[in-house]
Automatic annotation (TrEMBL):
Keyword Transmembrane helix (UniProt): yes
Record keywords, A-Z: Cell membrane, Membrane, Transmembrane, Transmembrane helix, Transport
Organism: Marinoscillum furvescens DSM 4134
Gene Ontology cellular-component terms listed: plasma membrane
GO MF term set: gluconate transmembrane transporter activity
Protein's name according to its UniProt entry: Gnt-I system high-affinity gluconate transporter
Length: 437
């Protein structure tokens, strides 16, 4: 009954947005309230659950998304994006730019939280698309596939790191196995699949589009790369330091503070304000105007992400995930497939990859010794399942749709299919590794 309720509410959400032309944020709020009532959440608590979902989602994202948009706007308006693009194109050429962006997404995505990587690297995709008249979806999907794979498969990302602890896996082995799965998954979901949709039209947000500047007015290549990727560099340093051993006392507190994505973005934006803003002859007022324009463009995305958070919270509070997996535990199937399937079903119904992965791990952890599965492979199987078919109840779906300015249909055709390919290839890779380990 719960599954039918979820399917019904998702259909209502899609129809409100596509057929009814209702604003996505308003549609999310209406459907979240409806879903809560239908799933048995007490009437006196439904609105509180929705409000908590909005606050919980924005609490962790609003600073990163807004500051990332500001940095992206400055990188575009200062000519830094153009300078970065020129360097990449000279190194790889137009034919190989997909692979250049994919490699960048993978390297950057290993230490970087997904949402931070998204808002930092999407402007680079748009810059290449605008400057060289290439399709944004075609060249951008490989980079986003790389970010998604690192988010779902590889520690030190929050979800796989938590899964390692829950399932008593080994961090190092999980990382090594994860690399083995990540490369084919990214290639198939990125450069290979994007060929099927290479003509897909999109009109990305104009906030990241700047008029081409003369070469002599552009920031230098090193300055452009360093300013744009400073958040990445800071997080890499912090991640490596933590892997080598978290310092105690005051040093540990400072490291934790500096390594927080919000603080990293603030530091990076302050640096960029002077390095590619004021340092390039712009007035502070002009730079601040760029930031104000970025906020205006990013506000609809924040509302849509907030709406997705409200719907997700209704699913979580109603306990529907526990009910769904209760009937799956006694299925006579391979335990690694079961882990993938449980995470996948929760992901499709709830939308959050992190919630799906951690919920599946909570179900499987008590029986890991009995099923005889390799815990390192189970981490990867659950992680792959948690990426299955992102759609309208996932904030990542809406971030991608709104940034690339696509229809819901084209978002499903590109984003949702790409995520599904990553998930399925991940499962196949896990089963192959299981044969040899």
């Amino acid at each position: 009954m719960s599954l039918l309720t979820i399917l019904f509410c998702i259909v209502v959400l899609v129809l409100l947005i596509t057929w009814g032309k209702v604003n996505p944020f308003l549609a999310f709020i209406i459907v979240s309230l409806l879903t809560g009532i239908m799933l048995g959440v007490p009437l006196s608590e439904v609105t509180t659950v929705v409000e908590n979902g909005i606050g919980g989602m924005l609490g962790g994202l609003v600073i990163v998304i807004v500051l990332g948009a500001m940095l992206g706007k400055l990188v575009a308006e200062s000519g830094a994006a153009q300078s970065i693009t020129n360097v990449l194109m000279r190194l790889f050429g137009t034919r190989k730019i997909q692979w250049a962006l994919m490699t960048t997404g993978f390297v950057v995505g290993i230490p970087l939280f997904y949402n931070v990587g998204f808002v930092l690297l999407v402007p680079l995709i748009f810059s290449v698309a605008y400057q060289y008249k290439l399709k944004a979806v075609y060249i951008g999907l490989p980079m986003l596939a790389a970010l998604s794979v690192t988010h779902g498969f590889l520690p030190p990302h929050p979800s796989p790191t938590a899964l390692v602890g829950q399932l008593n896996a080994d961090m190092g082995l999980t990382l090594i196995y994860g690399f083995c799965l990540a490369i084919p998954a990214i290639i198939l979901a990125g450069p290979v699949y994007s060929r099927a949709i290479r003509q897909m039209e999109s009109r990305p947000l104009s906030t990241f589009q700047a008029e081409p500047m003369p070469e002599d007015q552009l920031p230098g290549g090193f300055n452009s790369f360093f300013s744009a990727l400073l958040p990445v560099l800071l997080l890499v340093v912090v991640a490596v330091w933590q892997l080598l051993g978290t310092p105690k006392g005051a040093a540990g507190e400072v490291l934790a503070f500096v390594g927080n994505p919000s603080v990293v973005m603030i530091i990076a934006l302050i640096y960029a304000t002077f390095s590619i803003g004021i340092g390039q002859g712009k007035k502070m007022k002009t730079v601040m105007n760029h930031y104000a324009e970025a906020i205006k463009d990013i506000s609809p995305i924040l509302l849509i992400v907030a709406g997705a958070g409200a719907l997700k919270q209704v699913f979580v509070v109603s306990g529907v995930s526990t009910e769904l997996v209760a009937g799956l535990q006694n299925w006579n199937i391979h335990p690694l497939v079961l882990g993938w399937l449980i995470a996948g079903i929760i992901r499709v119904c709830i939308g959050s990859a992190t919630v799906a992965g951690l919920t599946a791990a909570g179900i499987l952890a008590p029986v890991m010794q009995d099923v005889g599965a390799d815990p390192n492979l189970m981490v990867l199987s659950v992680g792959a399942g948690s990426l299955l078919f992102s759609h309208v109840n996932d904030s990542g779906f809406w971030m991608y749709k709104e940034y690339f300015n696509l229809s819901v249909k084209d978002t499903i055709k590109s984003w949702s299919v790409m995520e599904t390919i990553v998930s399925v290839v991940g499962l196949i890779g896990v089963l192959i590794l299981d044969v040899f380990l």
